[in-house]
Amino acid sequence: MKRPRPTQPSYSAQEKAQAILRVWTERCKPSEVCRELKVNWVTFSQWQQRAMEGMLQALEPRVNLTTPPALNPRLQALLLKRQTTLTTRKLAQRLEQIQLASPPEPAAKMS
Questions:
Q1: Given this model, what pLDDT does residue 29 score?
Q2: Sign of CA dihedral 65, 66, 69, 73
Q3: Residues near 44 by beta carbon (within 8 Å), at least 6 away in sequence
Q4: 0.70 surpassed by pTM
Q5: Measured at the alpha carbon of residue 91, what is the angle toward residues 88 and 93, in degrees to the nearest 5?
Q6: How many other C-beta atoms are found inside a 10 Å radius of the C-beta of residue 34?
Q7: Confidence bin at 63 (pLDDT 50/70/90)
Q8: What does the angle CA 59 – CA 26 – CA 14 come to, to the nearest 5 degrees?
Q9: What are the CA-CA distances from residue 94 to residues 43, 89, 98, 104 (Å)?
């Protein structure tokens, strides 16, 4: 029979941030925070990683929300290729319609 896993306590974002900042400001050691909050080192390490990612993301220049979000380059290239194919196909169809609608030109006479 499997033993049920002990559930880890749930902490708010503010509590996690305070714990991380206590370590980053060297007010206490990571092992002390882990022991105090009853979390393992892996969990605390993940909190730190997410905090760093969030901080870096928050410090990036703000994106202008009035312009649509940019597509990734691969998707943009695929869309451009598709648009080019459609445009070329439409032009070819139109040229064919014009050629079928116009009467054949008389052959030039040689003198």
A1: 95
A2: negative
A3: 19, 30, 33, 34, 37
A4: no
A5: 110
A6: 18
A7: low
A8: 55
A9: 63, 9, 6, 17
